Amino acid sequence: MAKDNQAAVRRKARVRRAIRARAYGKPRLSVHRSSKQIYAQIIDDEHGATIVAASSLEKDQREALRTGANVEAAKAIGLLIAQRAAEKGIKDVVFDRGSYMYHGRVKALADGAREGGLNF
Fold this sequence. Notes:
Helix content: 40-55%
Largest sheet: 4 strands, mixed
Strand order of the largest sheet: 3-2-1-4
Number of domains: 1
Number of helices: 4
Radius of gyration: 14 Å
Structural class: alpha+beta
């Protein structure tokens, strides 16, 4: 395993430990990003199922956004995931940033989700 990958695995494990400590039965808002796209999903860890998902790859998002790799796209995905969560009756979640820093696109997605009505 490469040294950079080991650090990412350690960061991800540290974040997951903190999430488990404060989850109290809340679903988890997980974020993943690549160099060209951003993805978000709300996961019920008790049942191991994805409740709601949104990404910049969806057809309406691809048409509306110039690219999926910028802060504006991340904020739009945050608003979309919050809207879909509200339709399912989800208001409180735990934010899982994975091994990514809370900065840039990850922060923009979180801000968009908060603006959309999610609490974390």
